[in-house]
């Protein structure tokens, strides 16, 4: 039978755990055990069970609870007399070996009576062994809390006394880690701090002993507003001066080995860590470091700062470079770990003391205070050729006192921050390994044969590791330790991004932990910013995007913190002058994990703000491009303007801005779709259509529209669906996929009619008219375009009216109504000029050139075409320029001028071929073949005619090789 209160409540009888019928029974037993072998009054039990809020039936309920507790104990085999009823209360009778608190008291009393320190320590150890955690850790009762606190204090006191006695017995090495844990748990306890300082000092860790004092002082002054007491201040001074009285006892019990005197270190010192045997790559950086280190100038100390993100291999590179350069520093190499990413970054004063001891300065020879130590350190290094390696530096104030003051020495610093405040330092920004370097490192760990057997799996693993050296080492070590695994096994485990960080851990090596060390150095708003950036996906991002994410007008300071910490990398400056930033894939995965802890609404709002800013910029950029009929009227998705000066700078070159944001905008559409924000998804996709059309970015166009279409269909968003179907239909037209275009446009028109979207209906009808025209159904085409024109005039849309006026002119022209065609072309030209739409003017001029040519005025036709071509080339509209060159070729072909027609047609055919426009490419080769035939080159003519025929057959137009070629340009 064994009971316990020194930890969670414990009751075990005959090998069986006792079951309690609810928390009241547990509280009652706890109260009885705390006063075992004594009467516990009924009133105390009432107070324990209800904490002062007892009901009128409290005494009766106590009696019931006692009866139930007795039944449960008896059911496990306890004697019926275990809990006895006494006048006014109850009593539980137990022997010391049946209850941990009785055993604890017995051993403490033995320790008090003992006069032998070793026996006293042994008794206290037996007393401490009775504990399983904090007393009554699982019992909630305010009345019992004071008793539990009293017991916990007794435990701490016994523990501190035990460690103090063992320290006097010379067992400092055995107790030092115990003291560390106890000091963390009781940061205000000066006795524990004193014991820890003495233990560390006796373990020859003077710097850490002083650090323990500093920790205590900061805690007391910062949280309680008091200074440490004089005794511990005096102990600090004794540690600083290496007081001989602090040394371990010369002799003691059998557990205390005799200490040997600390050896005196003499120059030269050789403190560099072991080099990495499988170091790979970094050839250029190593060469630059060698040039910097091996030729120090007399009056200048070369300082190399190796900066980079977590796991990139900074320390490995520094050690490797330092060892390669060590021959140039015959007086030695100092190595100091500044531990900036640890819980306790090293104080530069303590680091100077460590360096001075390495330089043979000990005890009272080490002066007090940072300035005096730094001065002595510089004096000792003056005239010597020494290399100083400062690993894991956090900030300039930690580094500056450790820099030598005269030439002949050199310094290599590693840091996760940029350390831009160090004057004259040469910075080396360390990035990922190159793909060949990453493969070499991986192969060296895993073995050439395994990599050769599964080369594609090896590449996939390296892709999952993002060529990060730490990740590669972990992945390689896993495989090296599991020779029966194929590479495919690890690849499959790494491909799941949600568990990738868990997989990239082996022993003490962990990507997640490495990134976590950097995060601990950041303020909370920077950590939050990183987590939100991670949600935006794997793409480069402009700096302004952090403002909307954090709901700030300007977040540059936060972004600078992340860049300085090497968690966000500045990759380039794009064509419009935007710095672009990126998270390494594994850091982004860590960021997404952090974001998982944020409220879902907070994340959704941040993403919505970012999308609103992208949508505002995309809409404003599209408005500055040549007008396109597919650009929709803004709908209900919110817009969030970025600061005016930023927007003006970015949008000075709207096409250039779209070029820079191509991938980002597609990622934004996907982001909106993933978060089921259907309105921003379709509006972002549609906002880029004018740009896609202008630059012939058909793959991007289709990808963005397909992503958004899935989102709007799932949401039942008819307006968005109709707009996206029209955009996809235009792509089908460009690709000569007329059946698919017709289906999409008919669906779009139906959705518009159902929602009363007159402008959308007119656009769908216009595009159906284009399909009819290209297929040679001119009457049907004219009817559709005239219907659309009537709607547009009624709706008052002058841009679309100008477009449709031109389309009617084209259709009148192909039907031979030259005067009607002239009327509509003139109207379209007036409307475009009134709107200041130079692109539309050029389109009308190109169309009107056919009219002039048919009226026998090829010179006027060419004048219109050259004017139109100049506009299209100025606007970098490659596709419209190709349509114009096709018309130039037609005019010259009509004049049998092969020398001028051929180059124009070949240039146009090359563009059409690149963009998949088979209809117009075929027209070019047909005309070139006709010119060859007329020039007496039948073989060339047959070759070009067959090429045109093959193209027409792919689009179901084999009958057109002998007929007129209908225009398909917009």
Account of the 3D structure:
This protein is an alpha/beta fold and about 950 residues long. About 60% of the residues lie in helices and about 5% in strands. It contains 44 helices and 17 strands. The strands form five sheets. It has a six-stranded parallel beta sheet with strand order 7-9-10-11-8-12, sandwiched between helices. Strands 1-2-3 form a three-stranded antiparallel beta sheet, with no helix packed on it. Helix 5 packs antiparallel against helix 6, helix 23 packs across helix 26 (about 585-595) and helix 32 runs antiparallel to helix 33 (about 720-735). The termini are far apart. The model is unreliable at about 250-265 and about 955-970 (pLDDT under 50).
Topology, number of strands: 17
Which class of secondary structure composition applies to the elements? Answer: alpha/beta
Distance between the termini: 95 Å
The average pLDDT value, as a whole number, equals 87
Bin the strand percentage: 5-15%
Helical stretch tally: 44
Please outline the major beta sheet: 6 strands, parallel
Shape designation: elongated
Low-pLDDT runs: 251-267, 957-968
Helix content: 55-70%
Output the strand order for the largest sheet: 7-9-10-11-8-12
Features:
970 residues; alpha/beta; six-stranded parallel β-sheet; disordered C terminus
Strand-helix topology:
Layout: E1 2-4, E2 10-13, E3 16-17, H1 23-34, E4 40-41, H2 42-50, H3 58-75, E5 83-86, E6 89-92, H4 100-113, H5 117-128, H6 142-168, H7 172-185, H8 190-202, H9 206-224, H10 230-240, E7 269-270, H11 283-293, E8 303-308, H12 314-325, E9 332-337, H13 348-358, H14 370-381, E10 387-393, H15 396-399, E11 410-415, E12 426-430, H16 435-446, H17 448-453, H18 455-465, H19 469-480, H20 487-495, H21 497-503, E13 505-506, E14 509-510, H22 511-519, H23 524-534, E15 541-542, H24 546-550, H25 556-564, E16 569-573, E17 579-582, H26 585-595, H27 600-623, H28 644-650, H29 654-674, H30 678-687, H31 689-695, H32 698-715, H33 718-734, H34 738-755, H35 758-774, H36 778-795, H37 798-814, H38 818-835, H39 838-854, H40 858-874, H41 878-894, H42 898-914, H43 918-934, H44 938-954
Parallel strand pairs: 7-9, 8-11, 8-12, 9-10, 10-11
Antiparallel strand pairs: 1-2, 2-3, 4-6, 5-6, 13-14, 15-17, 16-17
